[in-house]
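Hey L., structure's done. Input below.
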Amino acid sequence: MGENLRCDALIVGAGITGSLVAERLTRQGLNVVIVDREFPGHGSTAASTSMLLWEIDQPLWQLSEVYGFERAARAYRASFDAVAGLKSLVGQLGITCDMRAKNSLCLAAGDSIGELLEEHRLRERAALPGDFLDHGMLLDRFGFARAGAIVSPGAADADPIQLAHGLLGLAVARGARLFEGEAVAFDAAGRSVGVRLASGGEIEARSVVLATGYVMPDIVQSTVHAVSSSWAIATVPQPQNIWKDDTLIWEDAKDYLYARTTRAGRIIIGGEDSTEIVEPEARDRLIPQKSRALAQRLAALWPAARTDIEFSWSGTFDTTSDGLPLIGPVPGAKGVYAAYGYGGNGITFSFLAACLIGDLIAGKTSPLLTDFAIDRDGGNSG
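Output:
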């Protein structure tokens, strides 16, 4: 794109986050331009296992130790409401993305259930749904031989590419303009924000939303953010071997294993995360090794499964030290907003980002913007 443009809102990034923001802002009647240096949805969106969880990577009990119970519970309730809101939006808009409502099962990773019991107690206090299952109940109900688990309603899964493309197509039908382009410089000194593209073109916008996944521009500075890689495999279809209710599975551990099934009966399992190996070529070279490790972990988790791998892939994503997203105004850059939903809740947080930033541009605010602030210290100062 070599021409110069003006718009109400420029969205940088056309993956799932940018698509959700574009849908929201066009619904608000704004003149929207979207730019992406890649084909829409082919960045971190394509690598997503698309488990739409409301449980945050940082357990409620740990988040409460960092920020206090009320603030932690607010983030959890917002995440719960975001999954419900996204499911409702997809239904209202009629987007075909194989979205299915699911329960989630948080499995004890070791022999102790003390932390899971405390987690369940705090979730009950926060009016969040879920039941604690001891070893016998878990084995009887789901067939998993773990010390315990929390089973919760309110989750979902979907096809992330179809979801992103459906939202993007709707935004374009409402008048949004989509261009291939790489934003390389931001000037927020004036009444509007000037964005220069690598092609030489410039876009002037009253608001700029950064939805660039793990490729974060220099104007965004955060001390709680880190880049990580993850690997995943999908088995051959085996509908006769999948667990009860196609429940979404994840472990109560820092570097957790996660698993879901597809409508065709494949088992998708991911994990083996690394913050050391994030360069794409080095990351992808490990796919065979990580795939074997994931197949072994699947066999240990669910012995009934066939571990024949039909697809394997890797992706780079971002994490934060407190498990919360980076959403809201970019400090020192008036009119520029960050929409970074990280960790296992990427798509959930992306929907929340679209809501919060849409409200911000419309003149509304929320205490969540303090919780998710770019320049928060993540509890490091205390």
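The first strand starts at residue 5 and ends at 12. The domain at 56-156+225-320 is CATH 3.30.9.10 (D-Amino Acid Oxidase; Chain A, domain 2).

-- N.
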